[in-house]
Amino acid sequence: MALNPFFLQGSRSEQRLTQDLINEQLRMFGVDVTYIPRKFLETDNVLNEVQSSKFDDNFVIEAYVNTYEGYSGAGDILTKFGMSIKDEVILTISKERFEDFIAPFMGALNDGTDQSEIVLTTRPREGDLIFFPLGERLFEIKFVEHEDPFYQLGKNYVYQLKCELFEYEDEVIDTSIQVIDSQVKDDGYISTLQLIGVGQTAEATASIASGFISEIYLNNDGSGYTSPPTITFSDSPANDTARAIGILTTRASVTSIEKILFLNRGSGYTSPPTITISGGGGTGAAATCGIHTSSNGVVRVNMLAGGFGYSTIPNVTIADPVGAGITAVGIASIGVSGSNKVVKFIHVDNAGNGYTSTPIVTVADPDSMLGIGTYQFNEIVKGSRSGTEARVKNWDADTNILQVSNVGIGSTVAGFYNGEDIIGQTSGASYSVSFYNSDDTNDKYNSGDEFEYFGDEILDFTETNPFGVVWYVRDLFLSRNNEKDCYIFWYSLQ
User: Fold this and answer.
1) How confident is the model at residue 31 (pLDDT cuts 50, 70, 90)?
2) 50-55 vs 172-173, strand pairing mode
3) Mean pLDDT of 179-193
4) Which residues contact 396 (CB under 8 A, 6 or more apart)?
5) Cβ contacts of 98 within 8 Å, gap of 6 or more
6) What is the rounded distance in angstroms from the CA atom of residue 233 to the CA atom of residue 244?
7) pLDDT tens per residue, range 198-216
8) Residue 296 belongs to what domain range?
9) Beta carbons of 148 and 90 less than 8 angstroms apart
10) What CA–CA distance (Å, rounded) separates 349 from 439?
């Protein structure tokens, strides 16, 4: 038999009243918690597993604490790996409040502009986080119960969130709320960068002579080169033969010689030398040159020290000649030596003339002479050469030690390069890498440092025997030159 049609099994007005009463009770007896939705940054294409995720949005909502007598769950568990905390909490939130004040904003976040983000739903979702203010703890939602109480007046009004204490696994937490973001400041896989706070300026001297190559004419730039060709000059009568390198360029899929840079313009030439261009996989290149014999010019720049900390090509200044003449011009070339970026060569772009004495060569200071700025917690830093990105965990300006996490997530780069600059994408801070340690500096299963610290507080290792007085007594006997009595005493203690 059908239900009596004259008695409503929950009218819309009754449901509305019930929902309003529940909302009012939650706002009277609940606590404000922060709901933090999880977004996926990267998933595995084979198993569709989440490899990295982030939490960068937050919503405040009132919640009733069902476990009012304290945290539920297994509590504190002592394992062979250390102490494990398994606190749980059950929270009740209003279904209507969530759908009206949180779900619309979550839907707006998923506008399709960022394909890495998940499709956010209109209900609380397992894997999202709850910040519980009473204990200032982060909890992860493990299960969402939406049918308890079961269809009162034909409708469900609340969500029960069954949460466990959040176990951090290098997720990106950047809610802009300091008390939340700092929860994981010392957690996760943390790598260490020793940065260079003070660079060193390169040093060089010039050599002057006459009979040097003043100009070079590239009559044919050739084609088909796969590597820089070898540039050779006929011998100088003064045994100071010119040296140069070829610089390649590609235009319309044809690789040819763009220009020739001098390492040494030579000296003692009485007639223009012959130039030979060979190797490099190409053909057809040809060049001629002119010489200067009437006065001295800068024929080469000799590197005394390459310095370190250079991220960009520094300016090179060669002093003017005394009296009439033309000032020489040098162009620096930087490269990597060991763990540092240094000035490798200084090419003599223009030898000048009229020099009667050796001019002073000045190389500009490196960019990271003193370092720039202060890294901010949780900001992204990027390597200038490797392109590797990471998130800042801690920056110690006194020791220039930068601790980072999430190194190279989403890329194939192994890590940072020694000698490259680490640039803060928010702060603009920039320092050069002296040493990069990719090992985890925060192993939560390693308590060796703590044991050593507290052990030193208990045991006095300044004594010969920190566990007793036996060796003190032995030393006393030996001081009296009575070794026999010493060993009799020692034997009696065994």
Assistant:
1) very high
2) parallel
3) 82
4) 402
5) 61, 123, 124, 159
6) 9
7) 678 899 999 999 999 999 9
8) 208-362
9) no
10) 46
Say if residue 178 is in the same domain as residue 226.
no
pTM of the predicted protein model: 0.54
Task: Indicate whether 187 pLDDT > 80.
Answer: no
CB 118 within 8 A of CB 38: yes
Q: How far apart are CA 57 and CA 37, in angstroms?
A: 7
CA dihedral 226, 230, 231, 237 (to 10 degrees): 180
Predicted confidence (pLDDT) per residue in 355-373, tens digit: 999 999 999 988 667 778 8
| Residues in contact with 489: Cβ distance below 8 Å, sequence separation at least 6, in sequence order | 473, 474, 477
Q: Is residue 448 part of a domain?
A: no
Q: Cα separation of 90 and 389, whole Å?
A: 38
Using a 10 angstrom Cβ sphere, with 0-12 exposed, 13-18 middle and 19 or more buried, the burial of residue 143 is exposed
Please report, as a single letter, which amino acid is at residue 451. Answer: F
Are 245 and 134 within one domain?
no
Q: Is 277 exposed, middle or buried (0-12, 13-18, 19+ CB in 10 A)?
A: buried
Structural domain ending residue among the three candidates 391, 408, 437: 437
Distance CA 103, CA 112 (A): 16
In a domain, 154, yes or no: yes
| 99 shares its domain with 172 | yes
What's the pLDDT score for residue 108? 65
Residues 391, 408, single domain; the answer is yes
Which phi and psi angles does 272 have, rounded to 5°? -60, 130
Distance of CA 29 to the CA centre of its chain: 45
Q: Are 180 and 168 in contact (CB under 8 A)?
A: no
Q: Are residues 271 and 402 in the same domain?
A: no
- Please name the amino acid found at residue 4: N
User: Are the CB atoms for 321 and 327 separated by under 8 Å?
Assistant: yes
pLDDT, tens digit (0-9, with 9 covering 90-100), for 128-177: 999 999 888 899 999 999 998 888 888 899 999 999 988 887 788 888 88
Is the same domain home to 380 and 479?
no
Decide which of 343, 362, 381 is a domain's last residue: 362
Whether residue 349 sits in one domain with residue 394:
no
Domain presence at residue 7: no
Element at 239 (helix H, strand E): none
Q: What integer pLDDT is reported at residue 493 of this predicted model?
A: 47
Supply the pLDDT for residue 489.
47
* Residue bearing the bigger pLDDT, 434 or 288: 288
The count of structural domains within the chain is 4
% of the chain exceeding 70 in pLDDT: 78
Question: Are 24 and 165 within one domain?
Answer: yes
Decide if 442 is inside a domain: no
- Give tens-digit pLDDT for 50-60: 667 888 889 99
